[in-house]
Amino acid sequence: MSVSSNRRKLLQSAGLVAMSGVVPTPAKAQAQKLPGGTIRILVGFPAGGGTDVMARYMADKLRERSGANVIVENRAGASGVIAIDALKKAPTDGSVIMFGTAATTVALTVTRKAPGFALDKDMTPIGLTGLTSTVFVLSPKLGLATLQDYTGWLKRNPEKNTFGTTALGSNTHFFGVLLGKAIGQPIEGVGYKGAAPLLSDLMAGHIAAGCGGLTDFLTHHQAGKVKIVALSASRRLPFAPDLPTVGELGHPSLGYEGFYGFYGPPGMPQGLVDAWSQELKACTESADLKQKLYNTGLDVMTSGPAEFAARQAALVQSFGDMMRKAGFAPE
């Protein structure tokens, strides 16, 4: 399923919205103010990583706008599930929210039989922050510039038909497998424990190609340390206009866009959800913060709770389609 078809489905059915854990806003829901005191933003990954950096940018802007004491709290581990567990137990007064990613919420829902959480029970979508893309990258040691170059190189070197992925059983793994099928040169994923070791091997020429999130590879591509040759986004990105999309390359069915966004605990009053959504949207769309997020590789895009919930549910479906086409099943 392509990204464009995903977007057409975003607000189609109540079933999708229900799957994402959002109850439609009552017509007479009263607006509420954000809580005073300390605000905690939960992050399911270690300090210094891309998710943490973006959350801290958001926290800085919230402090600037509100004067509140905003703390980023890293609850790293289990691919983000530890943070979700903390969110499940958090008070519903708006003092605790989570900055989350589809790489946790959607990916684990699809790829695991027992992910450790339920989208429809354990978190309340507040709003979208931006979209993320998957990229296919080449080692600079190959001296190749395009996906077509790589296809020809594989034909000459069939024994080197492997690519590194930042996580086996993830969208970055499935995307690479499906891209190999699309170019007629099947390639096999080799798992790495994150982007850092994969980048080291790519730059040293120990592996020819790799696949991961744009946020992991963009600055290294811009520095000439790796070469991005395919982007899963539906359009060229304003902050990286040189990156060709899979649609342009003749493979529109491979389009995929994950997301980052904010969640509240289960049972958060709708008035607080709306208040947080409006405040986070205002922060994200401020010119200085938007540029900082662009610099991380995030395609900034905001939405309210209902659209965010529908986007999440649509991605659950398309991610499942991608996994099955790549020949995998939930574990």
Quick summary of this structure?
The protein has 331 residues and is α/β, with parallel strands linked by helices. It has helices at residues 3-8, 14-19, 50-66, 81-88, 102-111, 147-156, 171-182, 195-204, 214-222, 270-284, 287-296, 305-325; strands spanning 38-43, 69-74, 96-101, 124-138, 162-165, 188-191, 209-213, 227-231, 257-264, 299-300.
How would you describe this structure to a colleague?
- By secondary structure, this protein is of the alpha/beta class.
- It is 40% helix and 18% strand.
- Strands 1, 2, 3, 4, 5, 6, 7, 8, 9 and 10 form a ten-stranded mixed sheet that branches.
Strand content: 15-25%
The total strand number stands at: 10
Number of distinct helices: 12
Please tell me how large the radius of gyration is: 20 Å
Helix content estimate = 40-55%
How far do the termini sit from each other? Answer: 22 Å
Oligomeric composition of the shown chains: single chain
Biggest beta sheet attributes = 10 strands, mixed
What is the overall silhouette? globular
Structural class: alpha/beta
- Residue stretches low in confidence (pLDDT < 50, at least 5 long) are 1-30
Order of helices and strands: HHEHEHEHEHEHEHEHEEHHEH
Q: Mean pLDDT across all residues, rounded?
A: 89
Keywords for this entry:
single chain; 331 residues; alpha/beta; 10-stranded mixed beta sheet; globular; disordered N terminus
Write the layout of secondary structure elements.
Blueprint: H1 3-8, H2 14-19, E1 38-43, H3 50-66, E2 69-74, H4 81-88, E3 96-101, H5 102-111, E4 124-138, H6 147-156, E5 162-165, H7 171-182, E6 188-191, H8 195-204, E7 209-213, H9 214-222, E8 227-231, E9 257-264, H10 270-284, H11 287-296, E10 299-300, H12 305-325
Parallel strand pairs: 1-2, 1-3, 5-6, 5-7
Antiparallel strand pairs: 3-9, 4-7, 4-8, 4-9, 4-10
